[in-house]
Amino acid sequence: MKREHGRRCGNGPPRPKSNADPTSSEYSLARRRFLRLMQCGDHCTIFDLVVRNGDPVLDPMPRIVRHIRFPRSAKPRPDASAEDFTLKAAAREFFEYLDQVENGKLKQVKVYDGLPSLVEVEDSDFM
After folding, report:
1. What is the per-residue pLDDT across 3-44, written as a single tens digit (0 to 9) for each?
2. Which of 13, 50, 9, 6 is nearest to 28 (CA)?
3. Cα–Cα distance for residue pair 15/122, rounded to 1 Å
4. Could you tell me the pTM of the whole model?
5. Residue-by-residue DSSP string for 32-95
6. What are phi and psi for residue 126, nearest 5 degrees?
7. Secondary element (H or E) of residue 4
């Protein structure tokens, strides 16, 4: 099986045990902090995000470049102020990817509308 950043694909820790979509409170503090960072960033790029044991490392804080879109939308995001909320598919899939990475560095994480939309990694084993 192809190894990805030192971990065999598909062998990550189990997902939260629930038949319903997981909520933010079911994830580690590091992942909840990263969710808040993406919500506050709204549209941004996060550079050189370190991943340790499947969790994003925010100390030290990665470099963040915010994107200002025009025309701006003033729609408030209902989950931005909620203590606990259901994760959208993009966030769930991003954390599943971090489980596969386990330990490494993501070159860039593109965030649009407060959700991860694209991850760039350097891959020496590409072909």
Report:
1. 344 433 343 444 444 557 888 899 999 999 999 999 988 899
2. 13
3. 26
4. 0.76
5. HHHHHHHHHHSSEEEEEEEEETTEEE-SSPPEEEE---SS---PPPGGGS-SS-BPPHHHHHHH
6. -60, -45
7. strand 3-4
